[in-house]
Design goal:
Length: 141
């Protein structure tokens, strides 16, 4: 009789644990699949953004080239109009066109050059307290 009493409380939870394991394994599998889908969609978005960025960079480069070409054409036209006319005309027409056209090309060149060159960053003044810090001096014995 003692043996029968010992066997009844021996009921194991193995079937319940097996079912819980299968449920958790199924949930884990669905989680991994959803993460895979999320990663794939993010990869697609990143590739799309990269392509958009490349197109935008190309458009900016074309715009800069067009601005430079326009500036060159404008300066070339101004330099050609700056050349003195034939000597057969009077000197007063030459005097009228020369001062008015001499000023714009210089201003235009400075204006165009300032567009493309960035000013150098200014260095902050050196503080007298920054010259030597005794606390950071390495002393070895």
């Amino acid at each position: 009789m003692g043996d029968n009493a010992a066997e009844k409380p021996k009921r194991t939870l193995l079937p319940v644990l097996t079912v819980l394991f299968l449920i958790s394994y199924g949930l884990l599998t669905t989680l991994v699949m959803e993460q895979g889908r999320t990663i794939a969609s993010q990869r697609g978005l990143i590739q799309s953004l990269f392509n958009d960025s490349a197109q935008l960079t190309g458009l900016k480069a074309k715009a800069i080239q067009k601005q430079q070409a326009d500036a060159r054409a404008q300066s070339k036209a101004q330099t050609q109009s700056k050349t003195p006319p034939a000597q057969g005309r009077g000197g007063d027409s030459q005097a009228k066109t020369s001062p008015s056209q001499a000023a714009p090309p210089a201003g235009a060149k400075n204006h165009n050059m300032s567009k493309f060159r960035r000013p150098l960053p200014q260095k902050p003044p050196k503080d007298t307290s920054d010259e030597m810090d005794v606390r950071r001096t390495l002393v070895s014995i």
